Predict the structure.
Amino acid sequence: MTNLTEPDLTAYQPRASVLTAPFWEGAARGELMIARCPACRQWQHPPLEKCRHCATELVAEAAPLEGYIYSSTVMHHSSVPLYPTPYTVAVVAVGQPDGPRVVMRVVDSAPDDAWPDAKVRIEFRDLPGGDHRVPVAVVDNTRRS
Ligand SMILES: [Zn+2]
């Protein structure tokens, strides 16, 4: 029987493909696995089969669990029922300011903290409705004190 007040969160679970399975398997064990070229060392996210720069086959590699806010927005009206509003979503440059960009929710931080170039720590949280984990960004405020 369908409960109209409780959304079916199983509809929002990722379906891993050959290319994305390393990302989801890494998230489950607390690693941010991003495709990287073994020849020219360029990161690539979302993953592709071959490097955009030299066409070498890409391999998933654990990326640093830190980064910088590239851009962010506060979601006041969510299109998915996974998180209570408002919440902040950011494009995070992983590892360094020109690193691969990964979209993630900003948690345990005030929306005003998620400014461009703010340093973040990358952690993992459960995705509601299933058994996947997703990367999230926590703004590093240690420089402010
Ligand atoms: Zn390459």
User: Anything to note?
Assistant: The chain has two domains: 14-63, 64-145. The chain has a mean pLDDT of 92.
